[in-house]
Give the backbone structure.
Amino acid sequence: MTLFLHELRRDRVKLIVWTAAIASMLLISIIIYPQMTAQMNEMGDMFAEMGAFSEAFNMDKVSFGEFSGYFAVECGNVLGLGGAFFAALMGISALAKEERERTAEFLLTHPVSRSRVVAEKLAAVLFEVLVLNLAVAAASVIGALAIGQDFDAKLFFTVLLGYLIMQAEIACIMFGLSAFLSGNGIGIALGAAFVLYFMNILANLTDEAEFLRYVTPFSYADGTSIAASGRIEVKYLIPGLAFALIGAAAAFIKYNKKDIRA
Amino acid sequence: MKAIETRGLTKFYGKARGIEGLDLSVEEGEIYGFIGPNGAGKSTTIRTLLGLIKKTGGEARVLGMDIEKDREKILREVGYLPSEASFYGGMRVREVLEFSAKLRKKDCREEAGRLAERLGLDMGRKVNELSLGNRKKVGIAAAFQHRPRLYILDEPTGGLDPLMQREFFTLLKERSAEGATVFLSSHVLSEIGRHCSGAGILREGRLIRQESVDRLTATGVKRVTLHGAAALPETEGMRDIKQSGQAASFLYSGGTKELIRVLAGLDFDDVTITDPDIEDVVMHYYTGEAK
């Protein structure tokens, strides 16, 4: 618990900044919805005519004229990508920062097992992801209530849950990767989050890239798909959870064997 | 029981040599000096004993416990001072010491306060704003506050001023008197000569000699210093000749009678013949003359 709390303390500024940025952007998107509905029908037609572009972002599947459709798209843009970046950054730096900041030697010469270090750090990262998503969910509800918009609560939270699981998966994968690094993995983290995001766009565009849906967590966490079907696609979720487990397990195995740099 | 005992302890970094076939033996309660030039493997040895890096061969026990199986148990009893201590940026000295104590599940506030006072350490300062010497003091406090049974100190006096060095060794002697063992790596040889009872000399990853400091310096070699000598004697067994001002000195490893006979034929004001200090002995090993 000591290390878990220590991690939260160290990361608090990052967590606050990312949460505030994502929550406020989503809140703004929601608050401007009433002004946009006036033009919505035209816009809906416009998106429908944009073909591949709309397909890429699944905007052909939902109606922009309905709040839940609009929310799903905005959530995908803001929380999907922003949350993925946040989760990737926190995941990749949790273990590696000890060696980068040369504090690993201090930490690991205390009577704490390496497994415990890994467990408490992973728990801290997942907790931070959860906090960010809870804050974003609260901001979304407040926004929807503020504009007096009826919303389908079940659908609303299913969309948010999808993004939460996706971020947890990315965090676990990056965390596992970071056990193998001793330098700065920020480039890798941001790059990986971006590649996964594009995989989903590619899969939306062409049937030949359909298999990518089993690779990227953006497939089961796609807000527009969830808004259209009302549920998270289990056949894409299962491999995602498996990747998360592999990532976490790799961290435990590798970090227990690792030589800590001076 | 030995405080530290290794048999054939070996660490390779891939193909690069760290240490090879180390047979260390440190008695419980002694102050042991671990001597070696930079890159000889002193830190590698310490980091292997502490479980920061994995050995590639041999065996090692610390306080009777296996370094791999009983790693956490060992660390509970050890206070470690790294040669360059780094702490979490943004934390205050007090917070670093409290964090360290919490990781040990101990309340060390009282002892931390005492140590800070003796070392002249401001507990309210942020660690990343501290000078090298003050950071070292934080390291000392963190290594000493839980009153461990074994102190492992890697070049402990670097960055400390002479007064603070004296305070540090006073502290160390107190802990030693209470029964703790001290394993001290250093290349300040006078430090080892003055404070340690046993010593090991490491060179290129191998332990080339391990003995009590007394026996290490009792080699049959004498250091001869001549004052106001017009010329140096010419005889066998002379080496490490040093000239400074009026004084000339050399190490002599021949017979004493022969030395007196040669000196008798010279003109000088004064002569001193002493046992070599540890510095002479170690230089002798470092430069590869001894086999």
